[in-house]
């Protein structure tokens, strides 16, 4: 089944939709694009789970994306296989219709995957297209990148501040350690000097007492 997505504006249009796919059926869209138009697409796929009675996203879903220029003998400009969610981009080299196709597959083996009894099919695919002049979209992306770069610079500045504070604290700890070692060395030196003085004093006193006792015996 083919759907037509009209080009809302020639500069920076956004189109969002979702559709259902049963089995490995391809769904294609036609978009008439001017030359030099950049198309950025974001997609995500969910599979119907009969047990949960809900749409579930899992790693077993894969999406094959192809973009062909129908005016140039179906010249393929995008051939990409991705997981259940991802992004694709291309730039129109010439003006004309472009066919954008999605082919889904799943390795879940869930019952009802190939059954047409379900009301909406087995895969729900969400698609968000940003269509516009490549310079404007790139300018928008550049603005986002600049914002991210600014945040990264702020984080780097904070990290540098933390690093400088850590270096300052280490320097203070080293200075305090040096002062403590110097103080301990002085205390030990004074203790040794005091021990030497006390030892000399004791030896002098003993010598004096000995001389005194000797004199007392002689008299």
From TrEMBL:
SMART domains noted in UniProt: EMP24_GP25L
Classification via Pfam families: EMP24_GP25L
Keywords (A to Z) from UniProt: Coiled coil, Membrane, Signal, Transmembrane, Transmembrane helix
Membrane-protein topology: Single-pass type I membrane protein
GO cellular component: membrane
Residue stretches making up the GOLD domain: 26-129
Record field: transmembrane: 187-207
Signal peptide: 1-16
Stated family: Belongs to the EMP24/GP25L family.
Organismal lineage: Eukaryota, Fungi, Dikarya, Ascomycota, Pezizomycotina
Keyword Secreted: no
PANTHER family recorded: TRANSMEMBRANE EMP24 DOMAIN-CONTAINING PROTEIN (PTHR22811)
UniProt name for this protein: Transmembrane emp24 domain-containing protein 9 protein
Cellular localisation: Membrane
Any coiled-coil regions, as ranges: 145-172
């Amino acid at each position: 089944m083919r759907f037509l997505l009209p080009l809302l504006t020639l500069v920076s249009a956004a189109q969002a939709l979702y559709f259902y796919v049963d089995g490995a059926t391809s769904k294609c869209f036609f978009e008439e694009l001017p030359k030099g138009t950049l198309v950025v697409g974001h997609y995500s796929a969910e599979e119907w789970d009969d047990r949960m009675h809900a749409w579930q996203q899992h790693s077993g879903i894969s999406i094959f994306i192809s973009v062909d220029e129908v005016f140039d003998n179906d010249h393929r400009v995008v051939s990409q296989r991705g997981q259940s969610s991802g992004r694709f981009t291309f730039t129109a080299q010439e003006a004309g219709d472009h066919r954008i196709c999605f082919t889904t597959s799943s390795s879940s083996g869930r019952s009802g995957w190939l059954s047409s009894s379900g009301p909406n099919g087995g895969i729900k695919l969400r698609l968000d297209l940003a269509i516009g002049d490549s310079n404007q979209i790139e300018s928008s992306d550049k603005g986002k990148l600049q914002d991210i770069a600014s945040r990264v610079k702020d984080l780097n500045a904070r990290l540098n501040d933390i690093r400088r504070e850590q270096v300052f604290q280490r320097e203070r700890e080293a200075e305090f350690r040096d002062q403590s070692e110097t103080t301990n060395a002085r205390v030990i030196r004074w203790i040794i000097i005091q021990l030497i003085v006390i030892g000399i004093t004791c030896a002098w006193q003993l010598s004096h007492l000995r001389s005194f006792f000797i004199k007392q015996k002689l008299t």
